[in-house]
Here is the input.
Amino acid sequence: GETVQIQLWPDDPKKQAELAIQFLVDRGLVTPLPNAPHNVEAVTDEDVYELAKRLGAKPGKPLSEIIIEDRGPW
Here is the structure.
């Protein structure tokens, strides 16, 4: 006889991501941040579009300068 290993994965992508991260943590390949928020919202398509539009309006300018400008006055 032949032995076959079957592993079932949930259909929920969020759960799949959590399982993948836990797999990496268990093997010591990544270390979770101690105070990282657990309920971070995913970036929406609208957010990505808006960011691309804003970055496209400033060709040739380094991203670091754009970020500093967007922070506003200290």
Remarks:
- The radius of gyration is 20 Å.
- Residues 5 and 55 are 48 Å apart (CA to CA).
- The chain has a mean pLDDT of 83.
